[in-house]
Amino acid sequence: MLGSLRGQKSRVMNYPRQIGKVTEKMYPRNKIDMAGKALAVKNFKSDDHQIDCEIVFDEYRRSFLQPLTNSTIEIQNWLRNFNCQYYIAQRLKRKPQILRKMGRISVRLTQLQDIGGNRIIVNSNKELESLRIFIKGNLSSNKNFSIYRETDYRIFGRDDTGYRSLHIILNAFGKKIELQLRSSAQHYWAECIERTSVIYGHYLKENDGDPKVIEYFKALSHAFYEIECGREPAAQEKISLDKKRDEAEKIIKAKTNNNVLHSYVNDNILHTLATIESKSSSSSSINNWILIFDWNGGHFVNWEAIPRDPNLAYDAYIKNEKAYAEESGYEVVLVGSSDVSMIRKTHSHYFGIDKYENILENLDQSVLGFSVRQPIDSGCRKILYTLMRKRCWGKRGIRLDTLKNHYCKSLFGVEASLNTLKNLDLVIMPGTKDPISLNIQKKEEINSYL
Q1: Strand 299-306 vs strand 287-294: parallel, antiparallel, or unpaired?
Q2: Cα(241)–Cα(215) distance, rounded to whole angstroms?
């Protein structure tokens, strides 16, 4: 319905403009803003009006992808001379996020400055400051960039949630592109609240949810900042934080699937993706990936390498956004990186939050149990549940093709999860062509995971 603009010329004014390899459909700013407002408040005059708004929105967001990729490649080239470890990935902001933000802060679509963004993570706040100086030095001598605005949330954090990071908005290749710079601790906090938000069902970073949960994350952010500054939180502060954590846990666990809260994704998936990537990339190129995550079960539905051509990549993004709605518990993300393993670091909330040792050792506590992982991932749990439901014990089993293409067709990385189960001796799988069944001698252990 939305893929083609053919037949829409009588209703829209557009002027082609070439940016790199992509031809951008240009609309007047007021038409873009009116389309964004109508979508944000879901107020349409007719079905045709809604279609028009969708087309205008999609074409406007499309126009950011090539400038974003150009910016990422340029910045990555600079970072080769940066003497600290870093992780970088780009992302095009998800449509539901954009529309919620417009409704939350009453901003026009053309005023948003983070539709295209880069996330760069370094180890410490001290290294982050070095990165800030390094990037600004490179920006000053590059005609493709200028700084539009710099916002530093590192010292005080945002008043509403305690979010900490350094944001630099760039004028880059005709668009505003956001650079989001974080230390490991700041990123750990942000990914924890991101994962909690989706599972809990409230957008905590947008100040939505029980005030006690939000207050816990604010207090945690402050404690992390104190530790990064070399100051150990006082005993009374730790006691207060523990109390707030316990209150937050009770509220969240009362509303959520505890298995999903603690689930994680098998990292063997990344080895497969890295093989795909190595066949098609060079050290200076950006590969586009579509990630589809199912928050109902805590696993990837798909992780697809898509063309570098920005039009084809964006068309794939729109297609998947329509097929996997956020309202149904899915998240569709378009990310880009020259090394797929970096996405494991820059978007870790999809994989299950790793324990950030230096911070949590000082606090003597984990964050909402995220560092307390089960020994099996969400994919393993889905396979165990399927085999148990089909009563596949001992000699009675299911063949791999049937499992992949019928019972677990929504699960990405079946082989990786099966390999984990086999190594744990939870399933019997003599060969790839033999039926797969549950190990009846491990029945009690299997039941404990379900």
Answers
A1: antiparallel
A2: 10
Residue 169 has a pLDDT of: 97
DSSP states of 283-316: TT--EEEEEEEETTTTEEEEEEEE-SSHHHHHHH
Instruction: Please give the pLDDT value at position 2.
Output: 30
DSSP string, 336-383: EESSTHHHHHHTGGGT-PPP-HHHHHHHTS-STTTT---SS-HHHHHH
The model's pTM: 0.83
- Model confidence at 370, pLDDT cuts 50, 70, 90, reads low
Share of the chain above pLDDT 90, in %: 54
Q: How many residues does the chain have?
A: 450
Here the tokens at position 257 are: 């699937």
Residue among 379, 293, 302 nearest 329 (CA): 293
pLDDT, average across residues 269-288? 70
**Of 17, 125, 116, 22, nearest in space to 75 by CA:** 116
How would you class 23 by CB atoms within 10 Å of its CB: exposed for 0-12, middle for 13-18, buried for 19 or more?
Answer: middle
3-state SS class at 181: strand
